[in-house]
């Protein structure tokens, strides 16, 4: 993710990723009947534009979407898979869990670089959202929803990152509510079968919609204590802050899961809601992906998350917006450098890393990354760091 204060510009590349909601029924769109292995998979495929539609305008939207995705698969995603197979083969084989801090709903990069992990953990500031039933919505409103989803994907599919400012607007709009539709459509586009979607609490426990005491308000409160007042005793409706997707490759009995959590990962945010670290305590060591992370862990405000990542991650794949190069070296990582290093874009020019620049300059040869990776406009200026912590 990246913060941006400039007006949104329309990218030259058409990047229409269609999506409505995994709970929207086929009647939400004028769709032709098709066969699918289960209801959720069929719904996700329909919402991704992978099934025929009878409405001409929707057909045109989805046709453009299909063209964009086919080009993406043959270009960007194919090159990323080649890189991963060449440089992360051992980590792919051993991967139980992939941790993607600050990744928001970017399941695309996680599943492309590490397709075989059993479990994926992503978090961001974007809400989980509701599971709307669009069955009774008029066609015009459905098309607006599709266009809103398309707009939310423009930067991801062209530049391979989200812009934080736009995400805040897009995923909180009335047209596009939360990240569930996007993640579901991404899974469908990558060929997965979608088995289940469940709301969860930030610590991974089952979500309880109504509670008399909201631990998010007072984390230290005794949940079994008698209420101090009648108002406090009244059940309050809670908003889900996490969701768990279960999915699999067609024909495979091996289930994979993706856990998305919505919370403030700053030190202050974790003090208010200390539940996600409890969830991470239960996880085995993880492979970690850090990209387009707004240099958040370069400052003291995210020291707790930095410590969590370093403690849990024997291998880290990142761009320069993740952990500082010096932090990785001090933590005992051996860092392999790919691509090039260029000073940060203007918005983050104060996060330049002279030591990382010197390390790149010392390489006997440098090559351009064959895929879009970081905030820089040109691939020639993009760098990837692969950090491994030697086994003790």
Describe the fold and architecture.
The protein is an alpha/beta fold and 392 residues long. The chain has helices at 39-47, 56-87, 89-94, 107-113, 139-152, 154-159, 164-170, 180-189, 230-233, 267-272, 275-281, 303-312, 325-330, 354-361; strands at 97-100, 119-124, 193-200, 210-211, 236-237, 242-248, 256-262, 287-290, 315-318, 334-339, 383-388. A nine-stranded mixed sheet has the order 3-6-7-2-1-8-9-11-10. A two-stranded antiparallel sheet has the order 4-5. Helix 2 (56-87) runs parallel beside helix 5 (139-152). Mean pLDDT is 81; it is low at 3-35 and 215-221.
Give the helices and strands, then pairings:
Elements: H1 39-47, H2 56-87, H3 89-94, E1 97-100, H4 107-113, E2 119-124, H5 139-152, H6 154-159, H7 164-170, H8 180-189, E3 193-200, E4 210-211, H9 230-233, E5 236-237, E6 242-248, E7 256-262, H10 267-272, H11 275-281, E8 287-290, H12 303-312, E9 315-318, H13 325-330, E10 334-339, H14 354-361, E11 383-388
Parallel strand pairs: 1-2, 1-8, 2-7, 8-9
Antiparallel strand pairs: 3-6, 4-5, 6-7, 9-11, 10-11
Helix pairs in contact: 1-8, 2-5
């Amino acid at each position: 993710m990246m913060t941006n204060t400039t007006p949104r510009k329309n990218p030259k590349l058409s990047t229409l990723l269609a999506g409505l909601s995994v709970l929207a029924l086929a009647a939400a769109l004028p769709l032709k009947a098709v066969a699918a292995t289960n209801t959720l998979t069929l719904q996700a495929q329909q919402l991704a534009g992978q099934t025929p539609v009878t409405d001409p305008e929707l057909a045109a939207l989805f046709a453009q979407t299909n063209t964009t995705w086919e080009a993406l698969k043959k270009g960007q995603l194919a090159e990323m898979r080649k890189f991963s197979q060449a440089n992360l083969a051992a980590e792919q084989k051993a991967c139980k869990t992939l941790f993607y801090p600050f990744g928001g709903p970017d399941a695309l990069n996680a599943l492309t670089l590490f397709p075989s992990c059993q479990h994926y953990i992503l978090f961001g500031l974007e809400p989980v959202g509701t599971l709307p039933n669009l069955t009774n919505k008029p066609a015009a409103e459905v098309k607006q929803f599709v266009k809103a989803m398309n707009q939310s994907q423009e930067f991801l599919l062209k530049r391979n990152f989200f812009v934080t400012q736009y995400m805040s607007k897009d995923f909180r709009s009335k047209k596009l509510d939360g990240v569930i539709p996007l993640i579901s459509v991404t899974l469908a586009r990558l060929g997965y079968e979608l088995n289940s979607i469940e709301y969860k609490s930030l610590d991974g426990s089952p979500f309880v919609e109504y509670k008399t005491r909201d631990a998010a308000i007072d984390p230290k409160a005794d949940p079994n204590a008698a209420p101090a007042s009648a108002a406090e005793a009244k059940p309050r409706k809670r908003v889900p802050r996490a969701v768990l997707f279960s999915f699999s490759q067609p024909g495979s009995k091996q289930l994979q899961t993706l856990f998305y959590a919505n919370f403030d990962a700053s030190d202050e945010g974790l003090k208010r809601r200390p539940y996600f670290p409890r969830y991470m305590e239960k996880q085995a060591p993880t492979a970690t992906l850090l990209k387009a992370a707004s240099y958040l862990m370069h400052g003291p405000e995210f020291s707790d998350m930095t410590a969590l990542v370093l403690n849990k991650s024997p291998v880290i794949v990142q761009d320069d917006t993740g952990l500082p190069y010096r932090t990785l070296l001090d933590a005992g990582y051996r860092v392999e450098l790919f691509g090039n290093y260029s000073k940060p874009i203007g918005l983050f020019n104060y996060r330049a890393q002279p030591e990382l620049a010197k390390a790149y300059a010392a390489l006997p040869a440098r090559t351009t990354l064959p895929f879009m990776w970081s905030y820089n406009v040109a691939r020639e200026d993009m760098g990837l760091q692969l950090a491994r912590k030697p086994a003790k």
